[in-house]
Amino acid sequence: MDQSPNRDPRKPVQPAPEPSDEDQVDIASDVQRGLEKANNKSESDRQTPPDGHKATEFDGSPNPRADEGARVFKPADDTPAVMPKRQGPKNPE
């Protein structure tokens, strides 16, 4: 049973309908109604709030900067300024 805190405990949980219980035409019309409802939403309902931040958000800046307010700990860059020269054969076999 679904023990979600948002569910009314007096209302029984509805089982998923079997594929044979509903005609394909009825399912298709339900889907079309849902699509129409989604398309009729205003533009403000579809967008995330401006203060929201997604990990994949990119503002288009050619010089991206880290968020100043994030206070994320980053490891120090330990890459040497000059890489040591390799010694020995290139392709040891």
Walkthrough of the structure:
Residues 1-11, 33-57, 65-77 have a biased composition (Basic and acidic residues). Residues 1-93 are annotated as: Disordered. The protein has 93 residues and is an all-alpha fold. It contains 2 helices and no strands. The radius of gyration is 28 Å and the shape is elongated. The model has no long low-confidence stretch (mean pLDDT 72).
TL;DR?
The chain has 93 residues and is mainly alpha-helical. The chain is built from 2 helices and no strands.
Note the main attributes of this structure.
2 helices; 93 residues; mainly alpha
Percentage of residues in helical conformation: 10-25%
Oligomer: single chain
Q: How confident is the prediction overall: mean pLDDT?
A: 72
Radius of gyration: 28 Å
Q: Order of helices and strands, N to C?
A: HH
Low-confidence stretches: none
Structural class: mainly alpha
Count every beta strand, where a strand is a DSSP E run of 2 or more residues. Answer: 0
Cα(first) to Cα(last) distance is 63 Å
Biased composition (Basic and acidic residues): 1-11, 33-57, 65-77
Region (Disordered): 1-93
